[in-house]
């Protein structure tokens, strides 16, 4: 992890690359981004906090079979590294009870504290599960999370929750996205999202 800004500064952004460890373009993007962030940091231009995981999946980075890099699935379990993330939202209602009120800032602080408790209580039953918990701990309290992926072919695109789509339209434009997919639930527990993006 590479960190910029004060540990408690806001807004906080988390960017991870190569969760599917054989998707090298994300690492290349992170490499160039880190150079730009280093320069911005030297000039004192970083406000808030930025955390970058340029190679988020050391397990997948180490997986080679007959000279071929296989980083999408864990070779030991067959599990896709970007599936089976902890469904923290399922436990938040019971954890928070009636403590939420009309103050959005106070509610967000309560939700983040409850998520941290749930992550701290999560059993570490496997290397992949442990990795996911480490990455989720970096992402859970962020205002923005970017999980960089790539494919053999396809246009630049984003997946966003419908509740935050208008706010992310600038980012999609800055990235040159040709498509934005909006879906309330991910269906199969993909990588971590900030609290404003359930599921």
Automatic annotation (TrEMBL):
> What are the residue boundaries of the Succinylglutamate desuccinylase/Aspartoacylase catalytic domain, all occurrences included?
11-158
What's the domain of life for this entry?
Bacteria
SUPFAM superfamilies (alphabetical): Zn-dependent exopeptidases (SSF53187)
Q: Which cofactor does the UniProt annotation name?
A: Zn(2+)
Supply one GO molecular-function term: hydrolase activity, acting on ester bonds
Q: Which Pfam families match?
A: AstE_AspA_cat
Q: Which UniProt keywords apply?
A: Hydrolase, Metal-binding, Zinc
Name of protein: Succinylglutamate desuccinylase/aspartoacylase family protein
Please name the source species.
Kaustia mangrovi
Q: What is the lineage of its organism?
A: Bacteria, Pseudomonadati, Pseudomonadota, Alphaproteobacteria, Hyphomicrobiales
């Amino acid at each position: 992890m590479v960190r910029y800004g004060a540990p408690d500064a806001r807004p906080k952004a988390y960017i991870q690359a190569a969760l599917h460890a054989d998707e090298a373009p994300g690492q290349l993007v992170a490499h160039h981004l880190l150079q730009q962030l280093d320069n911005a940091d030297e000039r004192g231009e970083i406000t808030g906090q930025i955390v970058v995981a340029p190679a988020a999946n050391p397990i997948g980075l180490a997986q080679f079979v007959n000279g071929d890099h296989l980083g999408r699935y864990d070779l030991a379990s067959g599990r896709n590294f970007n599936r089976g993330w902890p469904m923290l939202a399922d436990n938040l209602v019971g954890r928070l009870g009636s403590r939420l009120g009309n103050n959005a800032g106070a509610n967000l602080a309560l939700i983040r504290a409850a998520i941290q408790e749930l992550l701290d209580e999560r059993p570490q039953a496997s290397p992949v599960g442990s990795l996911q918990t480490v990455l989720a701990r970096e992402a859970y309290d962020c205002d923005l999370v970017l999980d960089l992926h790539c494919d053999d072919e396809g246009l630049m695109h984003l997946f966003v929750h419908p509740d935050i789509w208008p706010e992310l339209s600038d980012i999609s434009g800055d990235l040159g996205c040709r498509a934005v997919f909006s879906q309330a639930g991910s269906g199969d527990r993909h990588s971590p999202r900030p609290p404003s993006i359930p599921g």
